[in-house]
Amino acid sequence: MSSPYLNLKVVDITHETADAATIHFEHPDKQNITYKPGQFLTLILPIDGKEVRRSYSLCSTPAEAPRLSVTVKRVAGGLVSNYMLDTLQVGQEVRVMEPLGNFCLTCAPTNQRQVLLFGAGSGITPLMSILKAVLREEPGSKVTLLYGNRNEHSVIFKEQLQQLQASNPERLHVEYIYSQPAYDCEHRGRMNQSMILRILERLRLARIDNAVYYMCGPAGMMEEVRHALDVLHVPADRIYRESFVSSSAQDKQEGPQHGTVLSADDGSEVSTQTVKVIYEGAEYSFTVEPDQTILEAALEQNIDLPYSCQAGLCTACRGKCLSGKVYLDESDGLSEAEMEEGYTLNCVGHPLTPDVVIEIG
Ligand SMILES: Cc1cc2nc3c(=O)[nH]c(=O)nc-3n(C[C@H](O)[C@H](O)[C@H](O)COP(=O)(O)OP(=O)(O)OC[C@H]3O[C@@H](n4cnc5c(N)ncnc54)[C@H](O)[C@@H]3O)c2cc1C
Ligand code: FES
């Protein structure tokens, strides 16, 4: 089996806004790295004596090979985003996991479709890859982007988007939405259901059956898009969503909720449990506290289990539950068939019973 790890060299850094930069990588041998538009790269960085991993969507397209690019937006107090923006240098080598992710689009030159993209803030990154791929690979398709930002100065890729619009005036349309605009603008406020419906009606995109819909941004924005698409009766199999933050991370960010516990549908509750994990021929038993995921507890014990996005999205941490029950904060990464077969995701999994045994591999 080939290694999922690669060493890439930083070949350039583009400053996009005051708090976002694009890091361009190449393989030292200029080897092409295979990926699909919309997939992400997981960076493995040594910070403060520890190895930390974070995923970043590729904003480049495979046609830009051998270059792969990710855009990082600073998160206040965030370990890796601040390290990347303040410390990473051209020439430095970074260990990465090969591209992963299901939020992707496969282009075919004969396709004639409408590709509708909804993004906000750093959520533009995978959409940019998809947008560029469609413009290049599907001459008969059109792209519409609804793009939310705080103001005109926080728009990542503004110049690139303007250039792409100028060279594809009939095929690319962008609607900018600003929550706190510095100047007069057409769409003021956060992207919400009524605004989305209004824009799609005006662009005559509300009632079409040859469209695919991709959304990436904060949970609130994605809910609004989802509601709007429900009103338009868009079938679920045409809608793709990517989240950068898992619901458990969001809950932690919103602060502890005293007296509440995660509960499974059948009423069982998450409590302190010991789990057994079987990985590469070794068996590990460790305790998982109610506010920890199985992966977090393992890493705290220096048990080196596989993982990547830590958001229940990429399946790098997937294991099969041989006994016991596991509650998942997020199950988007697993298909229904995988769930029925007992697969679980350690990065978003909490043991519900004392007999949990998970086999990885
Ligand atoms: C599939 C995937 C693709 C991603 N693509 C990108 C990308 O293209 N560009 C990009 O900038 N980021 C992207 N992210 C987010 C990225 O992986 C990191 O989570 C982000 O950079 C924060 O890491 P940190 O170490 O700086 O913050 P941490 O030290 O991990 O967190 C600090 C605090 O910030 C909160 N937090 C973490 N992430 C966010 C966030 N995105 N927004 C607001 N609060 C947050 C945490 O809950 C915590 O409270 C992606 C994540 C996933 C799962
Ligand atoms: S690490 Fe990506 S799904 Fe768990």
TrEMBL record:
Short name of one Pfam family: Fer2
Cofactors: FAD
Keywords: 2Fe-2S, FAD, Flavoprotein, Iron, Iron-sulfur, Metal-binding, Oxidoreductase
Top-level taxonomy: Bacteria, Pseudomonadati, Bacteroidota, Cytophagia, Cytophagales
Domain 2Fe-2S ferredoxin-type: 273-361
An example Gene Ontology molecular-function term: 2 iron, 2 sulfur cluster binding
Domain FAD-binding FR-type: 3-106
InterPro entries in UniProt: 2Fe-2S_ferredoxin-like_sf, 2Fe-2S_ferredoxin-type, 2Fe2S_fd_BS, Beta-grasp_dom_sf, Cbr1-like_FAD-bd_dom, FAD-bd_FR_type, Flavoprot_Pyr_Nucl_cyt_Rdtase, FNR_nucleotide-bd
Disordered as annotated region, ranges: 245-266
Full protein name: Ferredoxin--NADP reductase
